[in-house]
């Protein structure tokens, strides 16, 4: 079990190195393929569950409640005839519903792949369009169009878990590749940030403020940039050793 867990997270670690549009195509492709392959048992179990529920309702009404009501009224009375008609109506409805559930099984096993393909393409376009058209989308509609992308990123975060703690499955063997020399990159504050820029605990405007830098303060770039809610964040370290995130627009000197 531990081997399967390691393989799963190491594969995720490899995927997370890809750009967002590529990840979307891969992950949604796998999900829609699983939906297509597992649609038969899913719909079969759903039909069986509904059929069992309907049978329970039928037995309660037609085998327990109505017979007791009929016994309490006169055989030739108006209410007795009505109750018998109601019993026959319930029996007929039950038979029709069971027949419809059988047809659901048939159509589920036939399936039409083109509907799933069209749904997959639409989902991919909804998720990647805010990234592909980031510079062209009006700010008024950025949040609205970005809801699909945000939802996907939350799904990805849930599925990936702690994949960052694992070595990528498809990465190169570190023993066979010489480690490149790491050059420190010190950033300065932009004109907008010199009046005071917040270093936050997380890459979000909701992140806790760890320190405020201003003026000619220099901060070390830690080679990590993330995008949250269509805003770029840079991971940095202050001169007194505090690691945190700062808005990209507040710093200068980032590598191209």
Portion of residues in beta strands equals 15-25%
Q: How many individual helices?
A: 6
Residue ranges: pLDDT <50 for 5 or more in a row? Answer: none
Radius of gyration, CA atoms, in whole angstroms: 30 Å
Report helical residue fraction.
40-55%
Task: Report on this structure.
- The protein starts with a helix and ends with a strand.
- It has 256 residues and is an alpha+beta fold.
- Helix 2 crosses helix 4 and helix 4 packs across helix 6.
- The strands form 2 sheets. Strands 6-5-4-1-7 form a 5-stranded antiparallel β-sheet, with no helix packed on it. Strands 2-3 form a two-stranded antiparallel sheet.
- The chain has 2 domains: 179 residues, no CATH class; 68 residues, SH3 Domains (SH3 type barrels, Roll).
- Helix content is 55%, strand content 15%.
- The mean pLDDT is 78.
- A hairpin with an 8-residue loop joins strand 2 and strand 3.
Secondary-structure blueprint:
Elements lengths: L1 H14 L4 H52 L6 H33 L2 H20 L6 H7 L1 H14 L24 E5 L7 E4 L8 E5 L4 E11 L2 E7 L5 E5 L3 E2 L4
Antiparallel strand pairs: 1-4, 1-7, 2-3, 4-5, 5-6
Task: For this entry, give a set of tags.
55% helix; two-stranded antiparallel sheet; 256 residues; 6 helices; 7 strands; alpha+beta; SH3 type barrels; 2 domains
């Amino acid at each position: 079990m531990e081997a399967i867990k390691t393989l799963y997270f190491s594969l995720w670690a490899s995927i997370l190195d890809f750009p967002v549009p590529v990840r979307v195509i891969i992950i949604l492709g796998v999900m829609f393929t699983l939906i297509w392959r597992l649609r038969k048992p899913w719909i079969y179990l759903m039909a069986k569950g509904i059929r069992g529920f309907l049978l329970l309702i039928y037995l309660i009404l037609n085998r327990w409640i109505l017979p007791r009501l009929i016994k309490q009224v006169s055989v030739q009375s108006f209410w007795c005839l009505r109750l018998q008609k109601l019993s026959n109506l319930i029996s007929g409805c039950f038979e029709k519903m069971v027949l419809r559930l059988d047809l659901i099984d048939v159509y589920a096993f036939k399936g039409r792949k083109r509907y799933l393909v069209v749904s997959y393409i639409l989902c991919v376009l909804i998720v990647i369009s805010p990234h592909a058209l980031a510079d062209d989308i009006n700010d008024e509609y950025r949040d609205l169009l970005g809801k699909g992308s945000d939802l996907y990123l939350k799904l990805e975060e849930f599925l990936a878990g702690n994949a960052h703690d694992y070595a990528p499955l498809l990465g190169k063997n570190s023993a066979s590749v010489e480690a490149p020399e790491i050059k420190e990159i010190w950033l300065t504050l932009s004109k907008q940030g010199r009046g005071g820029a917040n270093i936050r605990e997380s890459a979000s405007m909701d992140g806790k403020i760890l320190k405020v830098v201003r003026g000619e303060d220099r901060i070390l770039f830690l080679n990590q940039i993330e995008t949250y809610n269509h805003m770029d964040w840079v991971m940095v370290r202050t001169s007194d050793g505090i690691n945190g995130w700062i808005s990209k627009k507040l710093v200068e000197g980032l590598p191209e």
